[in-house]
Amino acid sequence: MSHLLVLRQPEFDALLEWLAPSREQAGEKYEFIRHRLLRYFEGHRCVPADEHVDETIDRVARRLARGERILSPDPVRYFYGVAKNVFLEFRKHQLSLQRPRDVPLVVESSSSSRLACVTCCLDALTPRARELLEAYYLDPRAGLAAHEGVTPNALRLRVFKEKQKLRACIARCLQRHQH
What we know:
By secondary structure, the chain is an all-alpha fold. It has 2 domains: 9-96; 101-178, Winged helix-like DNA-binding domain superfamily/Winged helix DNA-binding domain (Arc Repressor Mutant, subunit A, Orthogonal Bundle), CATH 1.10.10.10. 72% of the residues lie in helices and 0% in strands. The longest helix is centred in the last third of the chain and has 27 residues, at 152-178. It starts with 8 loop residues before the first helix and ends with a helix.
C-alpha cells in the first residue's frame, strides 16, 4: 500500500469542522487521533504505519467533503472503525502475497509423523525461542517488541530466524521418517 496523504484544502477543512468547533481544538483533536491511529497500526504490525494512518484519515476526510453525514458522536471511535477496515484490507493483501514456501514442507508424509516431528522440534527449541514464537503468534497485540526491548523489525527478524531453525528441524525429522 503506497499512499500519500493528498488532502485538498476543502477536504481538510471539512474534517476539521467535524472534529471541533474551533480550528485550534480541531487541530489538537486531529493530532490526538493521528497519534492514536499510528499506535494502532504499529501494534498491528502494519508497516509502514504512517501510510495506513494517512489512508484512514484520507477516507474520512473524503466522505465529509462529499457531504456525507457521519452520525458517530465520537470521532475517535469512528476513525478506529475506518482503521479496522484499512487493517483488514492490509491483512488480506499480505495473505495474497504469501509465497509457496509457506506450504507444508513434505505433503506426502502422514499427518501423525508430521505432528510427531513438529512436537519433537518444538520441544528441541530453547525455552526462550519457544516463548518468543508462542508470544508472537498467540498474542500479536501484546506489545512484544516493546517488552523485548527491540524494534518491530528486529523482532520479526528474530522470529524469522527461529522459524527457519524450526522448519529445518521438521524437514530433517520428516526425511528420517520416510526412510
